[in-house]
Design goal:
Elements lengths: L1 E5 L2 E3 L32 E5 L31 E6 L20 E9 L5 E9 L10 H10 L7 E4 L5 E3 L4 E2 L1 E3 L8 E7 L2 E15 L5 E4 L19 E2 L13 E15 L2 E18 L6
Parallel strand pairs: 8-16
Antiparallel strand pairs: 1-3, 2-6, 4-5, 5-6, 7-10, 9-14, 11-12, 12-13, 12-15, 15-16
Amino acid sequence: MLRHRIALTVALSLVGLSVPAAVFAANDPDGDANAECGLYDCQVEVDVPGQPADGQAGGSADQSGDNGSSGGSKPEKGVVCVYKLADPQPPAGSLDWEGHEPGDGAVYEQTCGYWDVTGNTIVRMVWLAEPPAQDTVDTAVLAQRAVDSMTLLGPDIASPRAAGKYTVGVPLWMWVNQSATTYGPNTASASAGGITVTATAEVSKIVWSMGDGDTVTCKGPGTTYTRSEGMAQSPTCGHVYSKTSAGAQNTQFSVTATSTWTINWQGGGQTGQLTEVRQTNAQVAVGEVQVVR
């Protein structure tokens, strides 16, 4: 792991929501807790997972190359870094000049969001010979980050019930309970580099694999059965078994309900759509009516 010298801030938050540290302990090899340092001269070392160790090769193409700072590694894919000119600039002789003199380039505050690795935000001071080009914020990456924070789940099956007894030739009504995490709508946002993307997810369809070789596609959550419906078929989501589950494993059909989440997002002047798929399994016992003569 590469160790970075941190001059101002380390925060476990989103880019731009860092928490300043008043003064870090000096990098004293003797461990002197009373050592003092200035605003820019303090240094601590922070492990950044996914980065190569000092003196080692960078590994992937995304990690190799120069990002404009001396000895730095190019941020990993999915990491957004933004820069702000340090004002005031550090005094001559500060460690932040990395051996250079004031007027030879400038020192910047670099903020990187490592959400694909640790979920942390790293803020450090870097010397650059030329003003840096700000990284382009990938709004699609932010949209996926917002979706990942939603904890989208598979269908919350209300019917068929695990303890239910179902009969050949009798209509089976299927429906699901609705919540933000199992059906939607579910809304979340993610921010980086001054851009916020908001995504809204909702189940657009549920495909039921009934265990007898048949599948049923339902566009909604299904309709709740009531006794007054008698032997009627579900108007929105149902199935009629033509054979018993006696020959199935554990004498039950294995039913799988697969929900497709459709996510619409917008932000940074752009819009888009993502899709996520989740599954839930259930067991259904199907018998037949025995006629006694």
